[in-house]
Fold this sequence. Notes:
Chain B: Belongs to the MreD family. The structure holds two protein chains of two kinds. By secondary structure, chain A is an alpha+beta fold. Chain A is 35% helix and 27% strand. Chain A is built from three helices and twelve strands. The termini of chain A are far apart. The mean pLDDT of chain A is 82. The interface between A and B is large, with 57 and 57 residues.
Amino acid sequence: MDKKNRINIPGYVVLLFLGLLCIVLLFFSFATGFSGGPVSALADYVFTPMQEGLSNAGGAISHGIDSRREKKQLLAENKRLNNKVNELESKLTNTRLKENELTRLEKLLKLSKDYDKYKTTGARIIAKGTSNWFSTFTIDKGSADGIKKDMNVIADNGLVGCVISVGKHYANVRSIIDDDSNVSASVSTTEDDMIITGGLEQIRKNGLISFSGLRDTKNKVKEGDAVVTSNISSKYLPGILIGYIAKKDNDTNALTSSGTITPVVDFSHLSEVLVITELKKTGK
Amino acid sequence: MKAVYYFFRGGIIFIALILLFILQTAIMPHLQLAATPNLMLILVSMMGFMRGRKTGAFTGLGAGLMIDLFSGQLFGTYALIYMLLGYLNGFFRKIYFGDSIRLPVILCAATDMVYGFIVYGVFFLLNGKADVLYYILNVMLPEMIYTVICALILYFPFYHLNNLLDRIHNRRERRIV
């Protein structure tokens, strides 16, 4: 081996150089909101097409395993649910009559709001985030399909999360159970505002997400009340259902209360979601 | 001429990283047992102690950048973490001889545990989530155990990958002489 011919850069120089590069990237991304830029082309042409195919295959495998296990369970559940359907149907007719009356009265007052008329586009989840710590996932639609950053994502009629970064043919979504997610929400009955924070610990222990800062001095909010996204949120469109209050405790300051919410979305079994193709107008 | 071989070796590691990334994000969520294994960290760790600090650091940087692209954290966070872990693994090259599987298993487990503590410290402890024991028992340990199992399976493919890289390296040496 001819040692003179080798350019030998010491290891610590490489470490320093790469470390500096990373730190520069961090500052750059902090200052400009850069999240990939030209590198995301790699994701567009290499990752997403392969992920799409493989995710299908993986889904088929786990579906096969699950289906055998769940058959018995489903039969029992089916019986129980059939009874419930009958019970609920009678209730529904009752509600429908009331709803008709309501729309008639609303028309008179010209009050009806268009909450349920958001335009949506369907998307499939093709990959989960790489770590066990965060709940982000990737969907198969991107800027080419009109998806933009901060668009809301829903499924099962409930809020799933919002888009955090967009590539040409993919988008990353952070779900509301993620530790980094904060949603401004309000109770549908009293319209009191609160902040909903996701958390790995809470969702794994009992499948709940926590809320805080609810100003409810008259104690009108009850367990089981529906919680929707609020009007004052900067990212989330108003009136999307998040979940129902599971537990409410008064804080020690005697002004606000906090507690937990049962989300309507089953986050562990998501495969398709709807993206609302409208951005919240914030007057910027 | 030399640069060509560097690119060639880099390219092989890069392709391995891409395959592992896709395996980890698209297949592993369906085979989840309490946690998903950290396959990319296995490659970073193994490249570290098989090929030294520099290769470890570069592999880590590549893996981290791919993860950053999809993580939604500040761009560069994971690149820094993985790069440091790859570099640190490089120090164990002196005691790695390839004849025993004990060292790779211990190193992969330790690397994954350290990774867990770094992620916990950076993203959770600083957010006021101080219940360390819960996170160790429910996130770090399951991930570590699953990662070690995957490391056992992946060790031999990576061992041969390392031999392949060695052969490319030797050919370069011969041409120069």
